[in-house]
Design goal:
Shape: elongated
Helix content: 25-40%
Strand order of the largest sheet: 2-1-7-8-6-3
Largest sheet: 6 strands, mixed
Order of helices and strands: HHHEHEEEEEHEEH
Strand content: 15-25%
Number of helices: 6
């Protein structure tokens, strides 16, 4: 009887193995690498993998990964009234992304005229990274708001040497690892910038506050 049962178990295991082997080729033909069974990456850094291989990830989280890569531990100020407060869920999602992917040390909502727009245009030597946005006709879905096209503007004194094209800068530098702070704490403002790009009538601008005109900068700390 024991031999009979062993034979049944062995036969079932053999069937399972054959079924899995039969499906393996189809799995390996998946369009997205992350869905393949035997795919390997050159890095174990999830931030780097997500930014370089996943367009959907870049659309939703690119701006926040840029912040976490360039200035982990930064303070974030969001001038209000803000489009990012369109709903409690969206406001919470924006703060979560800034803290988790952007590794921000704090996020503060502050009444300020900067909410109506920065009142200036970042100069080319201040723009470190830019990215594409997601579908503009859907404000929020089951996994959070889609992001607009975005710009990260930094103090030129902190601009890395040979940073290259802002549109491709993060492909080789994006990271979710490393220190949670870079020593001196930098401060950025997140502003809905009324400057059209792609299919969007606006962009999300994350700008180092020292680049803002004095009156706008002071309004963030009034």
């Amino acid at each position: 009887m024991a031999r009979y049962r062993f034979g049944i178990v062995a036969a079932l295991l053999a069937v399972v193995v054959l079924v899995n082997l039969g499906q393996f080729r189809g799995i390996e033909r998946q369009r997205f690498p992350e869905m393949r069974a035997a795919d390997r990456y050159n890095s174990s850094d999830l931030g780097s993998i997500a930014y370089s291989t996943c367009a959907w990830c870049r659309q939703r989280y690119g701006l926040y990964l840029a912040l976490g890569t360039v200035a982990p531990g930064a303070r974030i100020v969001i001038p209000t009234p803000s489009r990012y407060q369109a709903s409690p869920a969206e406001a919470n999602e924006v703060v979560t992304r800034l803290r988790v992917f952007g590794r921000a040390s704090s996020v503060t909502w502050v009444p300020s005229p900067a909410a109506a727009g920065p009142g200036f245009d970042p100069q080319p030597d201040e723009i470190l990274a830019t990215g594409f946005g997601g579908a503009p006709d859907i404000a929020i879905d089951a996994v959070g708001p889609h992001s607009a096209a975005w710009v990260l503007a930094v103090d030129p004194a902190t601009m890395p040497a040979n940073h290259g094209n802002p549109a491709t800068y993060l492909y080789s530098t994006a990271t979710a690892e490393g220190p949670s702070s870079t020593g001196s704490v930098r401060e950025f403002a997140l502003i809905r910038w009324a400057h059209p790009r792609e299919q969007f009538p606006y962009q999300d601008l994350l700008v180092e506050t020292k680049l803002l005109p004095p009156a706008l900068r002071e309004s963030l700390h009034a």
